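1st attempt posting a full record on here, be nice pls
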Amino acid sequence: MDRSRRATNPQNYNDNGTVKKGKKTWNYSNHYKKLKAKHAELCRINATNRRLAINEDVNHLRSIGDVFITEPKNAAKLMKRAKETTVNNKGKINRKKRFGKSVKNRCPGGFQTAVENKFKTSGGTYIEVPNNYRASQYDHTADDYIKKKLSDRMYKLADGTLVQRDWYSSFLLYCYNYRTNDIDKKKCAAEFKKCYSMEKDFIEWIKKHKIKVLNSGIKIA
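the predicted structure (as tokens):
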């Protein structure tokens, strides 16, 4: 579609391929119009499939529990572009884009909204922790917030215990204190050993069945 649009509207582009500023008139070929209609149909099908997949996941979550604790919706923040221009080790400029396409395909905001509606209308409890809860940064063994890189999917706590980042974040959400709206440190200490044992067993099950979990840090032999 872009190639067709450029071919029929050369007056709207600079020599370097960028679009000229100011008011422009666009001409579209019949071939472009057919492609546009096909693209719209594919987007419609994709949106329908995404909605059905979200509903299926939400119904499954509701069937296994009555309380859903999560962090506030932050899809808009995930789509923000980086402000500073950085260069990698090879001397190439790093991309400023973040998770725009992933957010579009997975629709996390719509997923959380669907979960919230499902739990509230079916007698369950839906809780969003405060913004300062920071489940992905807290370390209960050090009783401190330790900033980590997004690429650190597996990391060691202050006492040397190796944990999977997403699992540990969910564990800290499990230890949410309803009264103080903060992390229940006593519950963390009391429940960690049991929950950690369950996590290790589950990771071993994943490795045994050679299930590839994207962005988990779990390496399959």
